[in-house]
Design a protein that fits this description.
It is a single chain. The chain has helices at 2-20, 26-51. By secondary structure, it is an all-alpha fold. 66% of the residues lie in helices and 0% in strands. It starts with a helix and ends in a 17-residue tail after the last helix. Helix 1 (2-20) packs antiparallel against helix 2 (26-51). The chain has one domain. It is elongated.
């Protein structure tokens, strides 16, 4: 998951760099930037959940009787 986080962050960085260098217009890649940010948010949230013990700390609750 850490690699996914790094790659999503790096992708956003390079897209922003292309915009700042006036090689591409922000309007053409705004959806791509938004998607990269969403992926990054999902991955960071997943990493935090995994570090904090997984399902027990998530919004999804499994009754103890179903856990084997």
């Amino acid at each position: 998951m850490g690699i996914v986080e790094e790659e999503a962050d790096e992708s956003s960085y390079w897209i922003e760099l292309l915009i700042e260098a006036d090689l591409i217009k922000r309007e053409k890649v705004s959806d791509l930037l938004k998607e990269a940010d969403e992926i990054l948010s999902i991955v960071v949230s997943s990493i935090r959940t995994a570090r904090n013990g997984g399902v027990a700390n998530s919004a999804i609750r499994i009754p103890h009787s179903e856990i084997v």
